Write the structure tokens for this entry.
Amino acid sequence: MRIIVTIKQVPETSNVKMDKETGTMIREGVVSVINPLDLYAIEAGIEIKELHGGHVTVCTMGPPSAAKALKEAIAMGCDEGVLVSDKKFAGADTWATSYTLGAAIKELGPFDLILAGERATDGDTGQVGPGLAAWLGLPLATYVSKICSLENNQLTVERLVEDGYQVLQLPMPALLTVVKEISNPRLPTLRGKKKARASQLRVLSARDLEVQESHLGLKGSPTKVVKIEYPKVTRGGKMVKASGEEGLHTAVSALFAFLAEKELI
Amino acid sequence: MSYVWTIAEQNKGRLREVSFELLCRGRKLADKMNTKLCSVLLGSNVADDILQELISRGADEVYFIDDPRLASFIVETHSNALSDLIKKYKPHTILAAATSSGRTMMPYVAIQVSTGLTADCTELDIEEGTNYLLQTRPAIGGNIMATIKTPDHSPQMATVRPKSSRPLPLDPTRRGKIVRLPLPDGLYDPRVREVGFRMSHEDSASIEEADIVVAGGKGMKKSDNFAMLRTMARHLGGVVGGTRDAVDRGWLTYPQQIGLSGKTISPKLYVAAGVSGSIQHLAGIKTSEYIVAINQDPEANIFQVADFGIVGNLFEVVPLINARLEAHNKGGK
């Protein structure tokens, strides 16, 4: 079983603080990590390998510094890392990213399964996984919360949708985007970290891929960002203290006045 | 001038509310460009009087590809059908819902018809002069708002966050054309099959589609305490959700998780009890219309984004709110 996990390196947001003056995010000193939602895909890949045997390739498109994310995935238990990196890829939107990743995956040879996180926590689009399936013509299941069975080249999976879980059967090779429910990501072991340090990453640049230059990077992206705004997230709402029996009643009365004013009750 | 399309969604013969929200968005864009608004539905077995509601809520035309093989959402066949329709009719703009199916099908279609797509928009407009769709969306956990356009590609496509707009009022005097179309030969992809469906238990009923969400965090202290939030949700006509902490502790299920690694929601009213307001959680609630927070710690982050905050012990505050709500519902209406 050959499994490819596609990941993205994103800015770490858990330690980010808000600027109380401007009400915006303080971005200085933010470090990069594996997209937290990709950890579930990595773990799912490793678990499939442990259950059915095989090999897990972790693949990312990004600047040379994204090598760190690949090494972390290897430390968790992936077998090899592929860095798709070229200045020509920079600024790609989801269309150009899925195109480039698709070309890179074709370069890696036959595989049985591609796993991806549901979306990345920075761009938050969730479009690269489905786009990649479209480029490669692969059967696709998104929001997969459980792999029920994997036998005779058939996958049965549950996908989390608005009303519940849709159960899908699909032939392999296939592409799944996964949600948190699918797995509990393990921490890297000491042995894993050693292996990661010693591992050689494969680097693929535009020259190595069968791609049309006009489809790459910012130039090849159909969508263009025309404006970025930092919205004030603080709302400066009314605050009341509910202390003591009387304070409690006054506070709740004020809340009901607010709800009534906004026609919420 | 080519049309503005919105993609309606159906479930077992009924239209989802989000279909009407999209028509409200689409109507504004179509009027601005002086063109028609068309609602496209891929599905099976939907009656004419149900389709008529799309007209009554703003559509000029309805295209309905009616085939039993479109009864449940399978991305390959649905995308093939929509891409084929796009190639035939060449719409100017397509808006779909940022739901589990919209966010799966539209990126697939964007590759099939070679155009751009912007995810989960909260504001849309038409650029003067060029008629490009201006697509504004939150990114980086809602900390930036990016406006995106797709020059030199057609159609202009975006998915729109559910609940970020309200349906137009029903106007039964509106008239429009309803066109039923067959699924053309060769577009059905037999590879992927739905073999079952497991409904969520009612507690986790779709928090993205709810008008009112009552959420609990670490401050709820234990699973049993969520009963009071369920009571509040019932009185308000809402549903219960929670933070990652609440889900990781097993107090709630994952479909109820709100925030960066869970759902992003835009309800009319969001009530947070015992929620401190981490960056990740706030990312999921920032586009709520009104936020009410109840927390013991006056310095809690959640108060920064709240429209109304109560600093106090939620175990005293929530039961009192519930008692008042019960009296209000009994006596009021």
Notes: Helices of chain A lie at 36-52, 67-76, 94-107, 128-136, 190-198, 244-261. The first strand of chain A starts at residue 2 and ends at 7. The two ends of chain A are 56 Å apart (CA to CA). Chain A has a mean pLDDT of 94.
